[in-house]
Amino acid sequence: MDSRDFKKKRENQNNRDNQNNQDNSEDRDNQIIYGKNAVIEALLSHSEIDTVYILRNAGGMGKIIALAKEAGAVIKEVGEEKLTALLGAGVKHGGTAAVMAAVSYAEVEDILKVSEEKGLPPFIIAADGIQDPHNLGAIIRTAEAAGADGVIITKRRSASLTSTAFKTSAGAASWIKVARVNSLAQTLEDLKKKNIWIYGAEADGTPFYQAKLEGGCCLVIGSEGYGLSRLVREKCDQVLSIDMYGHVNSLNASVSAGILIYEAVRYRRGK
Q: What single string gives the DSSP state of each residue in 47-87?
């Protein structure tokens, strides 16, 4: 292994460690319920459950798993250390815990209805694996301020709309619709069929100021460390980049989103 490979491996490990710390910190800030009966009752009452944690190899979880799937909650099989990080040492959790969502998720069709009601071409922001809840919250805040119709996030490998993201959005998450989908690539394909152009953000793309962000558009912002996923990039009609003139070679994901969002606004407002 040469020095570059070692450096890359170390960076990837640091990213994973940082993400685990962010996950634990975020979850502690959210409303958490635990115990089989409590989690079952929350799911039966149709409370907005974001994530259900199941202790690995725990028995008697079939009903909880079925209800969580029906509710569209993310299900994570975890070890004892994760539940301890969530709840604290010595808590009798019965093998399960659930994290409540800060606000209710919408459907993609709900976002499209917003465009229809405005009488304007759709203007949508999608997050492809944004894992830092602060970045997600900042993107939601900018999207709402810019008059976007909605934000799309993924269920897996993504931050979700829990209290940390909500607080970072400065309440914007209460005013803009946020949809959570199983497959962003498939969702983008569906949007393309509705004459919505898909623009992804990547370092090797066309400079954003050369693009014409007219008509219906969906701006896709990739994850902090890895950018757009392969399948999502393949769905993009055009990949856009932001020129770097200093010593650093990238911007924070939410900053990149802000630049591209307001470039789209410039076109939508007639430049």
A: --EEEEEEETT-SS-HHHHHHHHHHT-EEEEE-HHHHHHHH
CB 227 within 8 A of CB 258: no
pLDDT in tens, 52-90: 999 998 999 999 999 999 988 899 999 999 999 888 888
Q: What are phi and psi of 210, to 5 degrees?
A: -90, -10
CB 47 within 8 Å of CB 102: no
**Is the pLDDT reported for residue 15 higher than 80?**
no
Burial 171-203 (b: 16+ CB within 10 A, else e): ebbeebbbbbbeebbebbeebbeeebbbbbbbe
d(CA 185, CA 205): 19
Asked if the model's pLDDT at residue 27 lies above 90, the reply is no
End-to-end CA distance of the chain: 51
Chain CA centroid to CA 175, Å? 17
